[in-house]
Amino acid sequence: MPTKATRNARALIEAEFPQLYISTSADVFPKMREFERWTTTTVNAYTQPMFDRYLGRLEEGLSALGFTGRLYIMTSSGGSVVPEAARRFPVRALESGPAAGVLMSAHHGHGLALPHMLSFDMGGTTAKGALIRDFTPLKKYEMEVARVHEFKRGSGLPVKIPAIDMIEIGAGGGSIAEVDERGLIRVGPRSAGADPGPACYGHGGALATLTDANLVLGYLDPDFFLGGEMRLDRAAAEAAIVRSVAAPLDLDLARAAWGIHEIINEDVARAFRIHASERGFDYRDCTMDAFGGSGPVHALAIARKLKIPRAIFPIGAGVMSALGLLVSPLSFELARTQRMFVEDLDAERLALVFAPIVEEASGFLRHAGIADGDIRITRKLDMRYHGQGYEIEVPLPSAGDADATFGALAELFETAYAKVFTASHLDEALEIVTWKVEATGPDVTLEAGYSVSGAGAGNAAPRAHKGTRAAYFPDLGYIDCPIYDRYAFSPGAEITGPALVEERESTSVIGIGDTAIVDAHYNLIVELSS
């Protein structure tokens, strides 16, 4: 909790200078580690004026359109807050857009009874991945912003906020392919962006990119990009790949394009391996949820490298993050540093320390109109063995009395510790470092189905067949590959790869022998052959 002196200083400044924006570290990041307190509070203070102006324009625009509902702003932790809270803590909105996509993956998991998932989002410049355990995205409490060297850890400013734990690599449709100083193909992290974009856009871009490679490999239809709104120039893509990769390495065009495509697959798979290993997460029996404009093109190849047996291609690959906003519950999370040894506590003291944090977190939801009876409280502790430099997050049971919770602390810590490291029982005192509370409102659900243009009860896989196109598969080379119209499928339709399934925002590349079934919500569920 902010000290009395901090509260008084803030109140004095507000009274004397009401036009100023004020951020105090006791509000923004009330935990130890002074440098991170400073950077997080500074980022919050720096972004407050522009964030306030942005929300003001948004509110005015909605009002002018006759909007009479409530506006909510999503945070990086996956919860939503009212504009007043967002204005106070704009730093919490960092990475909220990609976090929404992960929420939608968790929503798919609930609907399909798949508790453990990998959320994979690849767009034009970056790929993002997240792990979902027991229907819940894993969280972290630190990220890095303003990196001097893009995607290079340690080159930016640390920001301590609750956030969905995501990896990010420089892999997307605009990633530039070139030959590096070792004579090897390198793809990304440099990107052609949208202007001029890949060579195939025809906007003056001359550098080979991943999109150019996917076009040459036959995965993209030059006449159906963005649903036919934009025509791609295959000749320009071929020339760029020859100039940048094929000629310098003395490769034919197909092998050079496949090399670009495959390097991205391996880069993403490696990033997932490291991310999962660091968090003690076994993904081998998980399901991958793939979206974004480029995600479905690469997902099955990446899943095969990770030995993941199944992938989901949701309808509307390009708008998953927007849909994820619709399943974000009202939520607010607080954390306070207060170091204590477990042996110095009892059940009553444990409850007393949590009480004001619970009250403050709940207050943000009450302000949004949520009744106390509809607020769920989740308590967690950051704990460690005495003498260690970093802590392990220990979730506390939601049910049970204070005595039972306190009595189980040591066992709960050992279980959480073993998930990250191994079973280890050091002969050291247990120390609580940080007390965390998350207040969450009622769950949000979407309607049971999606409105899909062109879908109808009489449609089946044969009717969705659009024709064939030469597409490259490494075991067979270029083959005449069946193409299907995603919007002409009906639930229950089934196809076997190789196949290409086209929609406005993306193309799903179905591998040789893989089986894809359309479920009741028009998701494409793919079982990998091997």
- Write down the overall mean pLDDT: 89
| DSSP, total strands | 25
Helix content: 25-40%
End-to-end span in angstroms? 54 Å
The biggest beta sheet is recorded as: 9 strands, mixed
SS class: alpha+beta
List keywords for this structure.
9-stranded mixed sheet; 530 residues; globular
What does this structure look like?
The structure is a single chain. The longest helix has 31 residues, at 34-64. Strands 3, 4, 5, 10, 13, 14, 21, 24 and 25 form a nine-stranded mixed sheet that branches. Strands 15-18-16-17 form a four-stranded antiparallel sheet. The protein has a four-stranded mixed sheet with strand order 19-20-22-23. α6 (210-216) crosses α7 (234-249) and α6 crosses α8. The protein has 14 helices and 25 strands. With 530 residues, the protein is an alpha+beta fold. Mean pLDDT is 89; it is low at 448-459.
Task: Summarize the helices and strands and which ones pair or pack.
Blueprint lengths: L3 H13 L8 H4 L5 H31 L8 E2 L5 E2 L1 H6 L7 H17 L4 E6 L4 E7 L2 E2 L1 E2 L2 E3 L11 E3 L3 E2 L1 E4 L5 E5 L5 E7 L18 H7 L17 H16 L3 H26 L8 E5 L3 H12 L3 E4 L6 H6 L5 E11 L5 H20 L9 E10 L6 E4 L6 H6 L1 H12 L9 E11 L20 H4 E9 L3 E9 L8 E3 L2 E4 L4 E4 L4 E4 L5 E4 L3
Parallel strand pairs: 3-13, 13-14, 20-22
Antiparallel strand pairs: 1-2, 3-4, 4-5, 4-10, 6-9, 7-8, 11-12, 14-25, 15-18, 16-17, 16-18, 19-20, 21-24, 22-23, 24-25
